[in-house]
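Sample 1 of the test manifest.
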Amino acid sequence: MSRDKIVETLIKKGNKLFGLPYEKVKFTGNEEADTLLNDINQFPHAYVLACVMDGQIKAERAWLIPFYISQELGGFDFDKLLKLDLNSLKEIFKKKSLHRFNDTMAENFHSAIQLIHTKYNNNASNIWKDNPKSATVVCRFLEFKGVGVKKSTMAANILAREFKIPMQDRICIDISPDVHVKRVFARLGFISKDASNDELIYCARELHPEYPGIFDFSAWEIGREWCRPNNPDCKNCYLNQFCPKNI
Ligand code: SF4
């Protein structure tokens, strides 16, 4: 019963967020970089390239990479990117120390530009145009070098949740195995403390198959605001009365 109540509350919260109008997403905390990443009409490739860069360093730093490259190139028009050869890109990555794995990420960046060019006719928004199925969007992100399931579902989730991109369904938008989300799911009794990312993903699928990623924001917010690693503030957490508190 408590479990049902928790699920219901989290879904309600997630739906509320989903229904809110678009607001500029603070990906990096850098105003100019966030403006570029949010402009998915003029620079849809900036968002896609940032998703490709995400991983193995702090997200805020990874998402800054398109902006730093735009500074280097004097703009971020796709034509400019297309003219970049791999060696020049590697130089930029190294010179500006953009990533922990500069060579690999420069290769992934370059390869993503080529894929947007050949498959999407230089327009990355073709990845999500015409009300696609969520599985289609996830599959398309998976085709980018260096992008696995986690990044693909995150990319599809942000498109649906933050940018309000219409999709036929949300079945394939999984929960992101974030550290806050995992801790909250464990304390709520949904998964064990040492559960794998896959267990978390399948747990969310079981709880809400229509849109497993619905739990992302609410669980993340609870983890950050109240259910902190040490001394969780259960008194003020809105799940207090139902939570088994598996701490
Ligand atoms: S009630 Fe306490 S343990 Fe449960 S989710 Fe909230 S803060 Fe975490």
